[in-house]
Design brief:
Chain lengths: ~150, ~150
DNA sequence: CAAGATAATATCGTGCACGATATAAATGAG
DNA sequence: CTCATTTATATCGTGCACGATATTATCTTG
């Protein structure tokens, strides 16, 4: 990489786009999720469980690229809200398995409306969002690999 | 938007890509910034000041899509580190102007190496990163507008 | 089988991020 | 000019996020 290819302006750093976009997303989602009594990270965690119930803390954390020390208290709050249960695995006494409760499953029905509203607010086409997602995954996985 | 266009899998939600990528970016940057004694949000804030010194708390917060209640303590920590000064504006006694110190300006010289390393770690081309940035800005600005 | 190594979660301290509220300065309506 | 309103920071409480460390369970090597 040549020196003149290295961006110096904040606007040109890819981290700046992700950083500011994540704030905007968090704000937009929070508006919808307040009605459900959920925070944005809690909501994302629930989407993983809707897709596959009974995941371990470790599995959820890896999927979210998050430390378990962050997820443990978050899941405890979801438990306090009555949306999940936490139980030690029978097979491995170290692992904690997270399961949805009836209340946690019920929230799933309210998700599509939120998603549709968010997509509409972006003003972007599904194809563009798809491209964005692919680029983000490549960025993420590239950084993680090195 | 038709019902079948609404993604339900976590992997398909654009928020998921931004959320997980932001964790990966934060982790990758922190590795480089530890040497400089900076956190990732502190570093991003400094890049704005390197570009234009003497901005108000409000200006920085808007640029970062962040609340001033987040930025106030962050800038105070940068002040405690000796990288910036905080002074009430002469023209407007409510506003606080943030200026770089010699030490804060000196850090700028070490930024290009960090940026180059991060870009290289992504494994992506400058053109791809440019596309990603444009999509992120459109997403962000679309959400903010609505 | 026993002791050390590894692995999964939990705890703790610091910093980021937000909304609600407070404080103080500037603005505006009369 | 005065008082209400608006604006710019600051403060506070809650939750997210990380790294360092602790705890407990499993695995491994001898």
């Amino acid at each position: 990489m040549n020196a003149h290819d290295i961006p110096t302006r904040a606007e040109d750093l890819f981290c700046f786009g992700v950083y500011t976009a994540s704030h905007a997303i968090n704000r937009a989602y929070s508006g919808h999720l307040k009605r459900l009594g959920l925070t944005y990270p809690q909501y994302i965690t629930l989407t993983l469980l809707w897709e596959r119930d009974g995941q371990k803390i470790n599995e959820l954390a890896q999927c979210l690229r998050m430390e378990t020390s962050t997820l443990t208290p978050l899941v405890k709050r979801l438990e306090a809200l009555g949306h999940v249960t936490r139980n030690r695995s029978d097979k491995d006494g170290r692992a904690v398995v997270v399961n949805l409760t009836k209340s946690g499953r019920a929230l799933r029905d309210r998700a599509p409306a939120v998603t549709a509203c968010m997509i509409q607010q972006t003003g972007m086409t599904p194809a563009e969002l798809q491209t964005l997602q692919e680029l983000l995954f490549r960025l993420r996985d590239g950084l993680q690999a090195s």
